[in-house]
Write a structure and sequence with these properties.
Layout (H helix, E strand, L loop, with lengths): L1 H19 L2 H17 L10 H20 L14 H22 L3 H12 L4 H8 L3 H20 L1
Helix pairs in contact: 1-2, 1-3, 1-5, 2-3, 5-7, 6-7
Length: about 160
């Protein structure tokens, strides 16, 4: 089990963090993921990579947590107070960010998840493909198509 943890904990952590953006919750859920995996290892049938199976367990645990405690909206804390000179620019940037996140949220689930993993989780296409149970090329094409959908929506 130690070997399994060493090989996959980083992938599971990045996957969860890219979705929930809460480091403490992510750390707790990674531990819970491996505990659940240990308890149900006999049910792993080898039809997918072990990292994919672990990420699915992790996602299920995250959704359970959100159902029980409610999904938390994270508000970034900025230590610097805005000056009058850049306050307007910060407000415009914030509005644009909200628009992009809204557009991203409206993407189909697989596109949205690939975008989160790539842009926010900083995972490679190969890692994304493994997590999603698809190929590296599938992840690359899905990311490209999602980006095109977002750009098309911004031009309209």
């Amino acid at each position: 089990m130690d070997e399994l943890y060493k090989e996959n904990a980083k992938i599971v952590f990045h996957y969860l963090y890219s979705i929930c953006k809460d480091e403490q919750l992510t750390e707790d859920l990674v531990q819970e993921t491996f505990l659940q995996a240990y308890k149900s290892l006999e049910r792993f049938n080898g039809s997918c990579k072990i990292s994919t199976w672990l990420c699915q367990i992790a996602k299920h645990l995250l959704y359970q947590y959100w159902n029980k405690h409610g999904k938390q909206e994270l508000i970034p804390i900025d230590d610097k107070l805005p000056t009058e000179n850049n306050m307007e620019q910060q407000i415009l940037n914030r509005i644009e960010l909200v628009d992009v996140l809204r557009d991203l949220h409206n993407l189909p689930e697989q596109m949205r998840e690939v975008m989160y993993l790539r842009a926010l989780g900083d995972l490679s296409y190969k890692e994304i493909g493994e997590i999603m149970g698809k190929s590296e090329n599938w992840a690359r094409v899905t990311f490209y198509r999602a980006k095109e959908v977002l750009l098309k929506g911004r031009k309209e």
